[in-house]
Design brief:
Layout lengths: L1 E6 L3 H14 L3 E7 L2 H11 L3 E5 L7 H7 L6 E6 L6 H6 L4 E3 L4 H17 L2 H13 L6 E6 L2 E6 L3 E7 L2 E6 L5 E3 L3 H7 L5 E5 L2 E4 L3 E5 L5 E4 L4 E3 L2 H10 L6
Helix pairs in contact: 2-3
Length: 250
């Protein structure tokens, strides 16, 4: 059984989640329910849960602030939030599970299943620690969780040189490392990476602007990277790229 604590300041949300877990997630045993961050901290220290369902926005102390106070996070977390955009990128880039309120039963079951898989593989806590680091850092200093066959590899966002589409997959070229083939589309990867740092220069290519050494107008447009590689720039993407590089006014 997965021993879980629920933390949410809205009683109707707590009650609804309790009912849904009992109905749809028989592998989860609820050991306590708390209505604020202070109660949550005390309950976590007392019960040492496997999993915490944690509301992001609560009065006096947010879910993130509560985690900052804890000396150690040695449990899995599923965040719950009524705000689609609130920290959504930080959740996704760290491969952290979160549920939008009102919580859909199918989404709940899927989130619990992912937690079970992470617990069985032993790498669930790495996701939490990466997430906590990411919400404290500027986007360029964050780490991204890239799916691999046996789990995830955590890579510095700033070390990604460029990404290249290969059908439903994306090849990610990382500085001083072997390229990684990821089972996500280029569009999926683009959503995870900070737009102020990465620019689509072709329908199949997304590049880290910090690695661009030169822009060449020859052959329709190319960029030369610090790695020595030369990448084509499509006509439709050229103006946006030049604006980002400060070579063209809005």
């Amino acid at each position: 059984m997965i021993r879980a604590i629920l933390i949410d300041d809205e009683q109707h949300c707590l009650k609804s989640l309790q009912n849904d877990l009992k109905k749809y997630c028989p592998s989860v045993s609820i050991v306590d329910s708390c209505s604020n961050g202070k109660e949550g901290i005390l309950s976590i220290k007392k019960h040492h849960p496997d999993l915490v369902f944690l509301d992001v926005q609560m009065p006096w102390m947010s879910g993130f602030e509560m985690l900052e106070i804890l000396e150690e996070v040695d449990f899995s977390i599923i965040f719950t939030t009524a705000h689609d955009e609130f920290a959504a990128r930080a959740f996704r880039i760290s491969a952290i599970d979160y549920l939008l309120k009102p919580i859909d039963s199918a989404d709940l079951q899927e989130a619990v299943r992912k937690v079970e898989n992470k617990m069985n593989s032993g790498n669930g806590l790495q996701h939490i620690n990466t997430f906590l680091e990411n919400i404290r850092k500027p986007s360029g200093n964050q780490k991204i969780a890239l799916p691999q066959r046996e789990g995830y590899e955590f890579v510095d966002v700033s070390s990604i040189v460029y990404c290249y589409a290969e059908g439903a997959y994306t090849k990610i070229f990382i500085a001083d490392k072997k390229a990684m083939l990821i089972s996500k589309t280029l569009g999926d990867i683009e959503e995870l990476l900070p737009p102020e740092m990465f620019q689509r220069i072709h329908h199949s290519t997304l590049v880290n602007l910090n690695y661009i050494l030169q822009f060449l107008r020859t052959d329709g447009g190319n960029v030369v990277l610090r790695t020595g590689e030369k990448l084509a720039v499509s006509k439709s993407k050229k103006d946006n790229l030049l604006e980002k590089l400060g070579l063209k006014k809005h």
